[in-house]
Each structure stands twice: as C-alpha cells, then as structure tokens.
Amino acid sequence: MLTMIYKMGLCAEDSWRKLRGFRHLAKVIEGVKLKDGIEVTEDDKAAA
Length: 48
Known about the structure:
By secondary structure, the protein is mainly alpha-helical.
C-alpha cells in the first residue's frame, strides 16, 4: 500500500504547478496585506 501511494505521488508531481511569488510567502504568513503582489500599507489606503 505504501509503495502504491509513493508511486501515485511521483506521478502527480509531474503535473504540479510551481509556486510563483514564494518570496512573499513569509509576509503572507505574518499577515501582511498584499494587492497584486505589492505590499499594501496604511499610507497607501489613505492616498486612495
């Protein structure tokens, strides 16, 4: 059973998409707001 699951994982790995924007991942985990990949600050909200 374990071998079958391992083989299925290897086959599925071929079709997985790579994460783009992985540099922003730490910011997202910290709770920083991003819009279109750009960090949104309070100053940006007030200017809009």
